Amino acid sequence: MTYTESDIVPTVERLAGQDVAALTQEQLDGIDQFHAGGPQAVDRLLPGLRLGRGMTALDVGSGLGGPARQIARTTGCDVVGVDITASYVAAAVELTRGAGLADRVTFLHTPLTGLPRADFDAALTMHVQMNVRDKRAFYAGIAARLRPGGRLAVFEVCRTGSTPPPLPLPWSLDGTDSFLPTAGELRRSIQAAGFDLVEWSDDTAWTTAWFADLGRRLATAPPPVSLPALLTDGPTRMLNYAIALTSGTLTVHRGTFTAPGTP
Length: 263
Description:
- By secondary structure, the protein is an alpha/beta fold.
- It has a single domain, classed as Vaccinia Virus protein VP39 (Rossmann fold, 3-Layer(aba) Sandwich).
- It is built from 10 helices and 7 strands.
- It has a 7-stranded mixed sheet with strand order 3-2-1-4-5-7-6, with helices on both faces.
- The chain is globular, with a radius of gyration of 17 Å.
- The N and C termini lie far apart (about 40 Å).
């Protein structure tokens, strides 16, 4: 299993030398966004989600909760995050409490199938489906939890051919839990789950540039704590991911879809 990190918040506080509630938003952005692109990637998804006050979004595979909190802060909506890694959910809850957003952002330790609601206005997945074998069933489960016409935004990693990327990777240590589709396969799986396509964009060049800028910033002024420092073999995993993007082995695609039915 890849996601085995524990005691995440105590580790952050030890490395940062202060309570998580005292961390700046810039410091948190380097910790709680478990995907390439950081908060800027979330910003790229927001227009397609069309969220606002009085609405509720579903973050599937919510990790440490950075995107969910960012969406709530930016749009004023409520957010529910679900994740199957208990230690990540516990950290997300504590980070959200420290950010003063516990009244609007909720995290549940449950698979998507354990979520009974079917009234979400929008949903998102960011670097999640690589660990999911049956992608059509996964996205059909999301469609079943959206109101008619609800929006789905994805920011996901795909393969370009049969050449495997170097291991370990942020989502897989040994490859046994990595199920990478091509971009076309992923798009067709989402549409086969009942979604209608609104937008599909290759964000590989943008993501590669983000990695290059991140590398320069870390080399110039490394922060006391960053996401790679929290992960098992984190620096190697992040470097391998960046190399695979640069070499063309992997791509990152961003998409917006609408759920079946009339709003």
